[in-house]
Write a structure and sequence with these properties.
The complex is a heterotrimer of chains A (239), B (294) and C (252). Chain A has 239 residues and is mostly helical. Chain A has seven helices and no strands. The chains are: A mainly alpha (239), B mainly alpha (294), C alpha/beta (252).
Chain lengths: 239, 294, 252
Amino acid sequence: MRSRFHQGLDELRARLLRMGGLAEQAVDRACQAYIDRDLARCHMVLEGESQINITEREIDELAFDLLAMQQPMAVDLRFILAVTKINSDLERVGDQAVNIAERVMDMVELPKADLPVDIPRMAAAVSAMVRRALESFIEGKAELAQAVLEMDNVVDRMKDEAFIVLVKSMNENPDVTRQALDALLVARNLERVADHATNIAEDVIFWVRGADVRHNAGPEEAERQPAQLPAQQSATETH
Amino acid sequence: MPEKQTAGSTTLPPISLWRRGKNNFVTFAAMAAVFLVLLPLGAIFAYLVYKGVGSINWAFLTQTPKPVGEEGGGMANAIAGSALILAIASVMGVPLGIGAGIYLAEYGQNRLGTLIRFTADVLNGVPSIVIGIVAYALVVLTQKHFSALAGGVALAIMMIPTITRTTEEMLLLVPNTVREAAYGLGVSRWRTTLSITLRTATSGVITGVMLAFARVAGETAPLLFTAFGNQFWNWKLNQPTAALSLQIFNYAISPFDEWHRQAWAGALILIVLIVASVSAVRLAASRGTLKGAN
Amino acid sequence: MGVGIQVENLNAWFGKTQALRNINMTAEANHATAIIGPSGCGKSTFVRCLNRMHETIPEAHATGRVRIGDLDVYNGTSAVAIRRRIGMVFQKPNPFPTMSIYDNVAAGLKLNGFREHKRLDDIVERSLKLSALWDEVKDNLKKKSGASLSGGQQQRLCIARALAVQPEVLLMDEPCSALDPISTGKIEELIFQLKESFTIVIVTHNMQQASRVAEFTGFFLLGELIEFDKTEKIFTTPSDKRTEDYITGRFG
């Protein structure tokens, strides 16, 4: 039934996954560029930005079309709304990757400073969050999304620690102020990426459970008890 | 250059001369059939007018028959007598017929209904002389004289099957949605049947009544042993009464030319009166309907 | 003012075939409740059981309790009396074909013995205004027959006719399915206004109509009431998988 509509939904899902891949790749590249002080990678990030923007537009157009022409209801409607929001968050992730790359490009021109801040560890955590958020979307599993929400606290703490440490460095050693500031900005950009990953996870929960868990409203508070997802059901049927 | 064909188009062969010829022939045959059917009708009417119109005068329409041999006289009493007998027949036959039709349509989807329908169809086919004899046995022998009443009874028996069947059919034609609308308003079933269903089927029911009326108006055999005929005026229900069809019959088989002349005139008057009364009822019924109603 | 409808353990049969199984439902006063479901699910049968129209079909019967306000539909009063307090509008507009517009609206009153002829004019006018038909027909009330109006107008005439007897509840069995979108829109507007004075139960196979018009929705399937809830919940996060499958078009 409604095969054209379901093809549209599949296409929307595929495009969003592509978008996710592009965003994840941009973040990973930017972080790797920081670690390796690699200008070439920075340029790749900057060049990849336009593709992300194009894909964002394509996704919005398809979602709009499906809403207008197919009168989606219930889970399908939640899915399309979630996709548009995740789309927007992924585009911002791309922007943050660009910001990180620009910071790296600035840092590379300065002498290397030994800062007591573990950006790579933070980057790994944030990257994992993004990956897990996208996984929760692919699998349609609210538990995976829930795990992402919990990881956000960890990243926030890391950012606060980085702030304290870097300010101390700047006070003790004014020569490394610029490098410290760059590092601080990178930390902040990473923290923002983590926020976007959290948003993506909240949107997945909304889609799957019909529960609005944004702004820390727990899923227990959401009274809605939606039916099991068709994707999950077909997965269980193959047992 | 190959001809550009749009997707899925097939060229049909043009309509052949043979098919057109067949079409025209059948149309012509149908029209010829209509003509052939109307021909005897027209011939009868034309001949009646030709033979009868000359004898219709004021005397004919207002006087009673004169004794044999005398010139003049008329069929006034026969015209009046026919009207009386038909009135009696209608008063008995129309309500009974419509009532039976209502029963069959609204409540008659059962064995009793089938029995009634069967009886009506059989009654329809009974020869009119047999009905006359039955009426004779039932009414004339009981009353010990011929009467307009007996004639009315005989004609009523003939009217009922037609009215019943037509009423039933017309009521069944009323869509069930109309009945439902009435039920939904809390109207009881019998009230719905009378005020809504019957009212919707009115024009059809009237047609049925008119059909029955026109058929019995000209019947002669059932009146032979019931109304019997009368040379004089009679308004009493239990006395022999003149009737136009009877008068025509008696005059036509007589040996007198004078009476033959009057028989033609009578026949013409009979046809004219039947057509006039049916048209009058139709006109009155259509005046009562609204713009746009069927 | 409208009244609420309570349905308890309603079962209905056509001869030996069971058409409704154990229906329990409440329709709120002065709200519209939509009944949706695939063909043959029993939604029309259900609504017809509310005013005992179900019984007009031979060999059809129903058990259970239906309360409309303080009226116990199946216990006590005759079916005919019940139907005078409940208005019904059908799928195909069915004005009385031989009656004028005026007579159509007045039919429910006249046929039930209403005698105050002087008040009839006011009642007819009020009913036609309530159903948004007055302006279009006020010059031709007694001259035009009910059947000479367009489809959408005929349906509004039927609504006026149902409203003239001042029921507290209005039952509508797919009222717009035979109408074009503009007439449908007018009638949906009408339902909004009517909700202030009446309680409405509307059967519809058009889910978008249910979501536009009704605060509550019940989903029927194979004679059972699968889910009943606020319309927005049914259409955004239904609880039962069958409801969701129907709404998202995954079956029938």
